[in-house]
Structures are given as structure tokens and as C-alpha cells.
Amino acid sequence: MDPFQQMSDWKKNMDHFFGDRFWNEFEGLIKPTIPQINIYQTDHELFCIASVPGLSDLEKLDVYVDYTTLELKGSIDIDHSYGTVVKEEILHGVFERKITLPFPVRSDKIKATYKNGLVYIQLHRLISETSRKNRVHVHVLENS
């Protein structure tokens, strides 16, 4: 059995016991997350950069955005048929990562590009139609 799968099962049991947020501080120690992601925020935009080295087929990368969630699925494949591994620090393999965004984003205005092993994702803040200022009609209260 995959040792990371055993660790994941153990973590799920501990999450159930301690609560979902308990392991957030230890996540990188147990198994570093892939892909690594930086997110930059302005008033009305989010700019996400994900490290996905060696991607030769963009069809092998799935990017989903849903309201306040960014999800990345794919595989980082490194050809390592050059001999016996002496040191291995570059994370690779199948990944699935969900990131909670700091605010809701528009589904109709998303731009994603790939260059030099980095995925650049530009998202725009969702400004709800219901958040606009509405004039309230004031009625005169009759004296009784």
C-alpha cells in the first residue's frame, strides 16, 4: 500500500478527532503540497501562480473555478530513467489541490496561461447585483 495513502487515511481519522483545521500547520511536514501556489490580491483581482514543471500536454491539467474555490488537477511527470535516485526533492506525480479564495470570483472572466513551468491564473472579483445601493422609500408615519 502507498505510504502516503496510509498517512492520508491516518490524517482523516485525526481530522475527525481534532477538527479539520488542526493539521493545517503540519501539512507541509507530512507531505508537501503540489502544486505549490502563490496568490496575489488587489481590490478587484486575484493573480495565482502554480508551479507545474514538465507539462508538455495542457490537456493533462484541469483548472476549475467555482465561486470561492480554485481547483487544480493533473500530473507532474519527471523522466527519471537515468539511473538510481540519489536525491529527489522535486515533487511529482498525480495531484489534486483545492484552494479557498479570499472572495467570490466571476466565472465569465478567467484567464489562464502556461509558461516556463508556471500556470498563471487571473481571476476577477464577483460584484453581486444585489450589493448595489438601492433607494428606500420613506413613508410618513401618521400621528395617532
UniProtKB/TrEMBL annotation:
Coiled coil: none annotated. InterPro entries: A-crystallin/Hsp20_dom (IPR002068), HSP20-like_chaperone (IPR008978). Residues 28-141 form the SHSP domain. Belongs to the small heat shock protein (HSP20) family. This is HSP20 family protein.
